[in-house]
Every structure is written in structure tokens, then in C-alpha cells.
Design goal:
7 strands; Rossmann fold; two-stranded antiparallel sheet; 169 residues
């Protein structure tokens, strides 16, 4: 599968569009998109994803939209939030089955949000995503009990595997 471009990647939308029209791929964008969906559906059975709500918290609108589209295409229910504060004020706090959190956001970041959830006794699996890998961050996060830490750009398969693992544990 392709790489999931991060917000700092030059030509973010061009990368996605160019994949659709490469000489080795189908000439119709819908064919490639449908092939990706079919592959993901085969790999992640609908019995695992049909009823799960995934909340995506990222300040980058293009990342939120791309993740939500991918997750919906394989059968997840998805709710997106532009900030940790927006998520905390929502009615999704008690119903999310898994959180995908950006590490760096204006206001409260993903790590601080997770700590607040743990302090308030919410046991929601968390996957951190970041475009800025700091030395030791991944090891600290994983030892803190996070499901996964993915560095942007990451593949569609990487995020789906991380969510599947988080929901299975």
C-alpha cells in the first residue's frame, strides 16, 4: 500500500493525485480506490470494525479528512476533532473505542490528552501520530501503555494494523 503523506510533506494533495494516474495503476481513480478498499476489507473482517468508533484528533484538516475517509472505507464509524479540547467537550468521550491523536497541536497535545484521560479513568486505546519524532518519545510512549506511535508519513496498512491491534487487546 502507499504511504500516508504528512501535513509537512510538499505537494500533499499532488502525491495522492499522482498515484492515481501512474502508468502502473488503473487509469480510473475509482478503480484504484476500490482495489484499496477491497484489500482492506479482506484483511480486516467487518466483524472487527463494523461497530467500532474511532476518534481522530488532529489540528491538520487534510490529515483528519484522509484518515476519516480511509477508516470509513473499511467499516469504522469515525468522528474527527480539530483539537484535544474539542474532543474533551464532545459527547464522544465515553463512546470512542480507539483514539488516534496527533502529538503536537495548539493547546493540549496528544500525550497530555492521553494523560488526562488516564487520570480520569478512561481506558481508551490510543495511537499517537506525529510528524516530529523526538528522541526517546516512541519508547516512552510505548512503555506508558500506548498502542502505537506512528511517524508521518505512515502507510494505510500501518494505521489499520495499529487500530486493529489496539481494538483486539
Amino acid at each position: 500500500m502507499g504511504r500516508f503523506p504528512g501535513p509537512s510533506s510538499p505537494g500533499y494533495k499532488l502525491v495522492c493525485a499522482s498515484r492515481l494516474h501512474s502508468e502502473t495503476e488503473p487509469k480510473h481513480p475509482g478503480d484504484l480506490y476500490q482495489r484499496i478498499i477491497d484489500t482492506c476489507r479482506k484483511k480486516w473482517s467487518s466483524c472487527h470494525v463494523a461497530v467500532n468508533l474511532i476518534s481522530v484528533v488532529d489540528d491538520d484538516e487534510s490529515v483528519r479528512e484522509a484518515l476519516c475517509g480511509l477508516l470509513r472505507s473499511v467499516g469504522f464509524a469515525v468522528k474527527a476533532f480539530a483539537s484535544a479540547e474539542e474532543f474533551l467537550a464532545s459527547d464522544q468521550l465515553g463512546s470512542a473505542d480507539c483514539l488516534v491523536l496527533d502529538v503536537r497541536m495548539p493547546g493540549m497535545g496528544g500525550i497530555k490528552l492521553r494523560r488526562q484521560l488516564v487520570a480520569n479513568h478512561y481506558q481508551i486505546p490510543v495511537i499517537l501520530i506525529t510528524a516530529h519524532e523526538e528522541e526517546g518519545m516512541r519508547a516512552r510512549a510505548l512503555s506508558d501503555g500506548l498502542g502505537a506511535v506512528l511517524i508521518k508519513p505512515f502507510s494505510e496498512e500501518a494505521i489499520l494494523n495499529a487500530i486493529h491491534t489496539a481494538l483486539s487487546s
